[in-house]
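Input set for joint prediction.
Command: fold jointly, output tokens.
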Amino acid sequence: MTELEQTLSSGTSNAGAYQDYAIETKSLTKAFSGREAVSDLSLRVPVGSIFGFLGPNGSGKTTTIRMMLGLVSSNKGDITILGQPVEQLNQLARVGVVVEGPGFYPYLSGFDNLQRFAEVSYPAQKRLNPETSKLRRPDILQSLERVGLVGAKDKKYRAYSLGMKQRLSIAAALMWPRDLLVLDEPTNGLDPQGIVEVRELITSLNQEGMTIFVSSHILSEVEMICSHIAIMRDGVLQFQGSVEDFKGSLSKEFSLVTSQVDLAKEILVRFEFIDLHSCKIEGNHLTAQLSSENIEEIVKTLVEQGVGIRSVGLVEPSLEDAFVALTGRSSNVS
Amino acid sequence: MFLSEIKLLLKRRRTEVLFILLLLEPWLLAFLIYQFGGGGGQGPNFLNLVTHNGIFLVLASLSSLLPLLLPLAVSLVSSDAIAGEASNGTLRYLLTAPVSRFKLLVHKMSSSLVFIFVLSVTISLSGLVAGSVFFPVGKVLLLSGQTVSFFHGVLLVLLSALLVGLSLICVVAIGIAISTFTDIPVGATLGTLGAIILSEILDNITQVRGIWPLLPTNYWMSFSDLFRSPIIFSGISKNIVNQVGWLIFAFSIALAKFRFKDITS
Ligand SMILES: Nc1ncnc2c1ncn2[C@@H]1O[C@H](COP(=O)(O)OP(=O)(O)OP(=O)(O)O)[C@@H](O)[C@H]1O
Ligand SMILES: [Mg+2]
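tokens >
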């Protein structure tokens, strides 16, 4: 075990009185000038999970995270972080955060920036660990190493690339022993290797005992590492639970291959067999969510209306399709 | 946290440049007076005293910097307090570090207060050196006609540096208050400087004489009363009360605004 890993796991041992959920929100609601950005959100993030918080642009992810961290007040609802109400400031000393991208002093080097945040958070860490013998100095170099930034530590932050800035913000979240990491789109701006590295980092931190709450637009990016997910759309929770539950909850998709794909679509919609919004056409392949389970009836109708069928059946939808179906296909944000 | 604020301030190139420019001002002034003489002018005219005694260069520098350049330098620092952190995106990381909002304001305020006193004292020291390089120094002739020893004079000069620092408290307080209302540092700086200039303008309009005692700049030149024997304390003590009043008032506004503000920067 490296020293950092020891400090990290020692953070877990002094966890307070919470057993089931690292984060719990109840009926959380936030409106910005009358428009609800988050509506009646009740989230439960199990201790020890990697929790993917998913949703398209403007679906309320960052707003939720800001409320969880006490940056933004809620209009309604409660938040419990590590067993305590979020208003108890000291709790946050046990939470490493990346919110809406990096934020550092452009005129300081990467190392000096971490030094600054180490100094600033020292009093809170000390309140958490009144016995100073238990309180280790934050290992700035080691957290820089973990994100592969040691070589650039003396460069001014303003000279960092977007990916380097993002890495620095992850390093800052890892400076102290943490029980919980809240990461808002931590892979934004990273190169493909960087994305893989962050994914591996998240997995290994989780194995050391940290609960990780990570937001993303892209299901496939977090699907392979998350144990749980929640899906948001327009501030409303669409699903929450384990990844297996999500897969199990999906209804099979209707799949049809025909050369008269437009005619087939028109008929299927006219007879109300399928939902127009879920219908997707690629070449001569049509997929859609069925409104009726009676596939025999559908085939009969199609043939009667003169549609030639090359193949037809029910298939497992891809997770990505299911995600898009839940969050809406339109990329219009308002 | 307080030391961290001071370090942050000192590590910034802009602060260093400000310091150097302001420390050079007495030298520039000394050179100009040396070349062209003190000339006339109104108010406590230290300029034409400088050629007789270099010690007055300090006062000439302070009173020429006080109306505009010192408030500009101080408002650059104080109005950066919250607005600057917001625009860097560091505010959300400070608050989740976590630092309480109240303490953040207190530390920002106290580091800015240290800044103004360090600034006014170092300008005075620079002026003292420049004055003794360019001009003869010796016994000091007070404005009220008596003569005191050189060391007595130096003491009075340093006291006036402290009083000038004290006069800048309102710039710190107003700057921090305004900086809680915006995420744009330049806007906060201009707002602060605007408020000070407005106060200086109102201070010259006799129709609003009634509010003069409340203006933050009204007693700014009272430090020259030190150079009378006996010292006239009424202006000086009113200045102290005025500055502390502004500090309390502006800090309350800053706290009221910042306490529950949604941090969306
Ligand atoms: N400060 C604000 N003032 C007004 N509206 C806001 C503010 N911040 C967010 N919103 C609105 O709240 C909604 C949710 O925004 P939020 O930033 O939480 O979305 P998000 O899921 O994080 O999106 P993205 O994936 O783009 O980061 C949006 O409609 C946005 O316009
Ligand atoms: Mg966001």
